[in-house]
Design brief:
The complex is a heterotrimer of chains A (171), B (509) and C (350). Chain A is 75% helix and 0% strand. Chain A has 171 residues and is an all-alpha fold. Chain B has one domain. The termini of chain B are far apart. The C terminus of chain B is likely disordered. The longest helix of chain B has 31 residues. Chain B is built from 20 helices and two strands. By secondary structure, chain C is of the alpha/beta class. Chain C has two domains: 173 residues, 3-Layer(aba) Sandwich (D-Maltodextrin-Binding Protein, domain 2), CATH 3.40.190; 128 residues, 3-Layer(aba) Sandwich (D-Maltodextrin-Binding Protein, domain 2), CATH 3.40.190.10. Helices cover 45% and strands 16% of the residues of chain C. In chain C, the strands form three sheets. Chain C has a six-stranded mixed sheet with strand order 2-1-3-10-4-11, with helices on both faces. The longest helix of chain C has 17 residues. Chain C is globular. The chains are: A mainly alpha (171), B mainly alpha (509), C alpha/beta (350). Chains in contact: A-B, A-C, B-C. At the A-B interface, helix 1, helix 2, helix 4, helix 5 and helix 6 of A face helix 3, helix 9, helix 10, helix 17 and helix 18 of B.
Chain lengths: 171, 509, 350
């Protein structure tokens, strides 16, 4: 508890660092074909990024070593960084089950795919109705009113009154 | 000059002018709140209405509308985590966490009142600087801009919190994102992968929306709870928010100053200064670890800053007809329509109009904030709506808000990618703000470095203003450590690692 | 969703409280009454929504022109004309997207003639179409370019510049109009000059000129005129065949005594500037729709109300018909190899 270095290495951190390292290496390589003034800044930046990423990975190595030798790490430190409140985003992300994730991502994907294909004015009422009925188990009346009002207000204010550009779909 | 100053107040207070201004404020209010509507686009839409107006009336209408969008944009940022305007992005960082804790009233009170204070300081500055408006704009060039950019980048350290290396890595990634697009030197597209969409670089708005709001909406979909599970007593919350602006008055003043200073610089763009102000607030705070988790100082910095910067961006517009931001560029059209010539005339024969702009900024903000305060109690209730009912509404805000960046479907893809990054960053505790700061400043740093070199060789390094700013950078970078050492000398302070996030107990009382 | 009432209240209050709005409303009203203007039959546009794309963010010349023209064009077509800003790739993103639009005339764009023409001739990366693919509807404004020096620079006349020892131009980037013009001027007039790129936009480059960080720049006369009148910039040369009305004392490029090769270059440069700000449609617009649009646009820009509005915004209308633009495109396509060579060199030099 006294030192942060005694906490176990989180695999995710290592994976992210490795991914970032790959991004910086890629950025460095891509920059090689450019004229001098174009590549100077990206080159320096990518080099710095690679350096920090390696440093970070090295730190993880030391951390893993210390953790193993001391056996004194407690899970408390981890719990400390996440508030005990079940409302916090870290907690929800950490504890949600695979099915919940799949459902949430599925709905989000459905919304944005529909947005790109059907355009905002069709997607919004359709999605609202479907989401409220299926995921939210709302009543037909409430869901329908919400869907119609949301679609109608959006169409009227953004489409007709102000003619603001909106995702229009591929049609 | 004083006579003109007060005479111009009377010009603004004509019943017809006030009526026009109220209409402008009403429109600006709605536009600011809605993420799908940008202030500058609306200004452009409204230009035809001023054809037959007197100059003061035209500015009462347009300027009134514009300054209000910066204020009310914060409302959406605080309540839903989606910035209502590009300039309200930084308000999300701490405003939304406060809302989730049930402190929406306090956050809104703080954001709104600090907005007014920022606007007042900005207007005050504009009025005071009239005699030196033109020399002021000409005093700084690319070398000074570069130093300001570097100053902003030093805040990455503070913004990274406990994970300095993680913060640096996120900042490096952000800079890489900033480099996407046509390079300003040779005209070569960098990291664009053949996509023309990427040629102008990646806009900050879809990034902020994805990184913050996108992740939050996903959380709502997972947990199906409301945004806040409880709200503190609203009235006392608002009152506390108001008190906060005075308790942390130095944050408000410094953030306003940053807004004015950066607003004056045409190439920096309207959304840069809020990130620098936010970074500075965390850097100078006694409790930097609270930032991002609902620190009221973060809300104050963003709120005060985005209103003060409007006054700053008017400085070069008035003095030279060179707009300091996109909004100011549209306002420049209003100058022409009403037959005004930006430049010396605005400071001599048309000085009354310049001063009337000062008054309009002040009055419009006061009216908008007064109205907002009346609405806060109702607005806060929105955060108690069950999550499933909010999700469709919030998804629309995400999509439409991102889309405003360039009215291109790719904006939505950028937002989604940023949302994925946001989820990963939250889950594995990687700081997101250094990334955004670097996105905003990375390209500028490169551009100003090359420009300084092309214009002056290396001689700019030894000019007094650059040396002065350099000293400031060193001071700002070292100060937290000096302060920590001094405090450690006085009293035993627990080690930094042990400073827990849950010593946020004082809030909400 | 609390957005509906305030907006409507705002609008009704706007309309109610202020009597003098009537004319302005007329200008922006989306009246669907059928076209009163003669000429081409435009029944196919009736009730349609036509999008007029501005390839830049709001504010600035292209945006202003589009917004001045849109309501009038709408009246002529009997449809609603909506202005959309689609910023990206220095204006090229919108142009490339226009190429892929359905050629029915419901998607049009106001184009940066000089930039796109220059880039197309130079074979710049990112222009994925040929200039003569576009359906030219009409030019609404010429873009008379002017060469200015900052008041803090030592240059007052063109002769000073010709004797210069390293005249520095500010430019917003490789391939921008200010870049092409500056490089070709250096070549045509043969003086010691260089172009500093990397300014974010014309606002920043103009500030650099006024500050004296650079010596001068080229730019649109109508956006430069304020600074010239304020004494912040000195006009040196108008890039046109004849002098500008507002600057009778400033020489024009066409009247200079030049060698044969330089004259040919200068003529092509002037041709390119003549492209100005045209309104264009996607390739393959059917003949009937094209002629309707051409006629409707012509009717719009000759409408006294539009002209008054344009005058008020200091955005003068200077009409060139679609047919004349087609001719210009042909002429530029045949432009001397030397011209295309110089353009390409400028693009590559950076």
């Amino acid at each position: 508890m006294k030192t942060a270095t005694a906490t176990p290495v989180r695999l995710g951190d290592v994976v992210i660092t490795v991914l970032l390292l790959a991004v910086f290496v890629g950025a460095y390589l891509l920059a090689q074909d450019w004229p001098f003034r174009t590549k100077l800044f990206p080159g320096l930046l990518a080099t710095a990024g690679i350096g920090i990423a390696v440093l970070k990975l090295g730190g993880h190595g030391v951390q893993a070593y210390r953790h193993r030798t001391r056996h004194s790490a407690t899970r408390q430190e981890d719990a400390g960084s996440e508030q005990g409140d079940d409302h916090s985003i870290e907690y929800v992300f950490g504890t949600a089950g695979a099915r919940a994730w799949l459902a949430a991502l599925g709905w989000a994907a459905a919304f944005f795919v529909a947005l790109c294909v059907l355009g905002v004015f069709i997607t919004v009422p359709l999605f609202t109705l479907a989401y409220l009925k299926i995921s939210g188990s709302a009543g037909w009346l409430g869901a329908t009113i919400y869907a119609v009002v949301a679609g109608g207000v959006l169409w009227f204010v953004f489409g007709e009154l102000l003619a603001v550009p909106m995702p229009a779909g591929i049609f | 000059m004083f006579q003109t100053f007060f005479q111009s107040l009377l010009d603004v207070l004509q019943p017809e002018t006030i009526a026009i201004m109220l209409v402008g404020i009403a429109i600006g209010f709605v536009v600011g709140v809605l993420p799908g509507l940008g202030g500058s686009v609306t200004l452009a839409l409204m230009l035809p209405f001023i054809f037959d107006m007197e100059p003061v009336q035209a500015f009462a209408f347009l300027l009134g509308m514009w300054v209000v969008t910066a204020t009310t944009g914060d409302i959406t940022s605080v309540l839903f985590g989606v910035p209502g305007e590009a300039t309200s992005a930084a308000t999300v960082f701490d405003g939304y966490p406060m809302t989730k804790r049930g402190e929406a009233g306090r956050a809104l009170g703080a954001a709104l009142l600090s907005s007014t204070q920022g606007a007042l300081l900005g207007a005050f500055f504009l009025a005071l600087s009239v005699p030196i408006l033109r020399p002021l704009v000409l005093a700084f060039g690319p070398p000074e801009f570069l130093m300001l950019t570097l100053l902003g980048l030093t805040f990455v350290v503070a913004l990274s919190g406990r994970n300095v290396l993680k913060g640096f890595l996120m900042a490096a990634l952000g800079m890489l994102v900033a480099l996407v697009g046509i390079d300003p030197q040779e005209g070569v597209p960098r990291y664009a992968f053949g996509q023309l969409y990427l040629w102008d670089g990646i806009d900050i708005v879809p990034l902020v929306i994805g990184l913050f709001a996108g992740a939050e909406v996903l959380q709502l979909m997972l947990s199906k709870t409301s945004i806040a599970t409880r709200t503190a007593d609203n009235i006392s919350g608002i009152r506390q928010g108001v008190r906060d602006t005075f308790r942390h008055w130095t944050v408000v003043v410094r953030s306003s100053a940053i807004g004015i200073g950066i607003g004056i610089i045409p190439g920096m763009g309207g959304s840069v200064s809020q990130f620098i102000a936010y970074g500075h607030a965390q850097q100078t705070s006694k409790h930097p670890e609270r930032f991002g988790k609902g620190a009221v100082e973060g809300v104050l910095a963003a709120g005060a800053n985005n209103n003060a910067k409007d006054a700053g961006s008017l400085v070069p517009t008035i003095a030279f007809g060179i707009p300091g931001s996109v909004g100011a560029a549209v306002l420049l059209g209003a100058f022409l329509i009403t037959g005004l010539n930006p430049g010396p005339e605005m400071l001599t024969t048309n000085l009354n109009i310049t001063f009337s702009m000062v008054w309009i900024m002040v009055l419009a903000n006061i009216v908008a904030v007064a109205v907002s305060f009346l609405l806060i109690r109702q607005l806060v209730k929105l955060t108690l709506i069950p999550g499933t009912w909010l999700v469709p509404f919030l998804l629309v805000l995400l999509g439409v808000g991102a889309f405003t960046a360039s009215n291109n479907i790719n904006d939505i893809f950028v937002m989604l990618a940023a949302a994925a990054l946001g989820v990963v960053a939250i889950h594995w505790d990687w700081p997101r703000v250094p990334f955004l700061l670097a996105v905003v400043l990375g390209g500028l740093a490169e551009r100003y470095l090359f420009l300084s070199y092309s214009l002056h060789g290396w001689s700019w390094l030894t000019t007094p203003s650059v040396l002065g700013l350099g000293a400031l950078i060193v001071f700002v970078a070292v100060w937290p450590y000096v302060r920590a050492m001094r405090r450690r000398g006085k009293e035993p302070v627990p080690a930094r690692v042990e400073t827990k996030d849950n010593d946020l107990t004082g809030v909400g009382k | 969703m609390f957005d509906r009432k305030p907006t409507r209240a705002a609008f009704s209050a706007l309309l109610g409280a202020i009597a003098l709005m009537s004319t302005a409303c007329d200008a922006v009203g989306t009246s669907t009454e059928a076209s009163a203007g003669g000429g081409g039959d435009c029944s196919m546009f009736e009730g349609e929504t036509v999008t007029l794309v501005v390839p830049y963010s709001p504010g600035g010349g292209y945006d202003s022109y589009a917004r001045i023209i849109a309501p009038h064009l709408g009246k002529e077509l009997g449809s609603e004309v909506v202005v959309e800003n689609e910023d990206g790739a220095g204006g090229l993103l919108a142009m490339n997207n226009l190429m892929a639009a359905t050629p029915d005339g419901t998607e049009l764009a106001i184009m940066n003639g000089v930039g796109v023409a220059g880039g197309a001739l130079a074979g710049a990366e990112g222009i994925r179409f040929a200039l003569d693919d576009l359906s030219m509807i009409g030019r609404v404004a010429e873009q008379q370019a002017v060469f200015v020096a900052g008041a803090k620079s030592p240059y007052r006349t063109l002769d000073d510049v010709l004797k210069a020892d390293g005249f520095e131009f500010a430019s917003t980037g490789v391939g921008a109009a200010d870049f092409v013009n500056a490089n070709l001027l250096i070549e045509i007039l043969d003086f010691d000059g260089r172009v500093v790129t990397g300014f974010e936009g014309s606002d920043e480059s103009e500030l650099a000129v006024v500050r004296g960080d650079v010596d001068g720049q080229t730019g649109d006369l109508d956006s430069r005129i304020e600074a010239i009148e304020a004494g912040d910039e000195h006009p040196l040369l108008v890039i046109d065949t004849k002098r500008a009305d507002v600057l009778p004392d400033v020489p024009a490029l066409g009247e200079l005594d030049l060698g044969q090769r330089e004259r040919a270059l200068a003529e092509s440069l002037i041709d390119m500037s003549a492209f100005g700000r045209p309104i264009v449609g996607p390739p393959g617009l059917p003949e009937d729709r094209l002629s309707c649009l051409r006629q409707a646009l012509h009717n719009s820009v000759t409408n006294p109300k539009l002209l008054a509005a344009a005058k008020k915004e200091e955005r003068p209308i200077s009409w060139l018909s679609g047919a004349e633009l087609d001719e210009l495109v042909g002429r530029l396509g045949d432009a001397s190899a030397a011209f295309q060579q110089s353009l390409r060199a400028a693009h590559e030099r950076g």
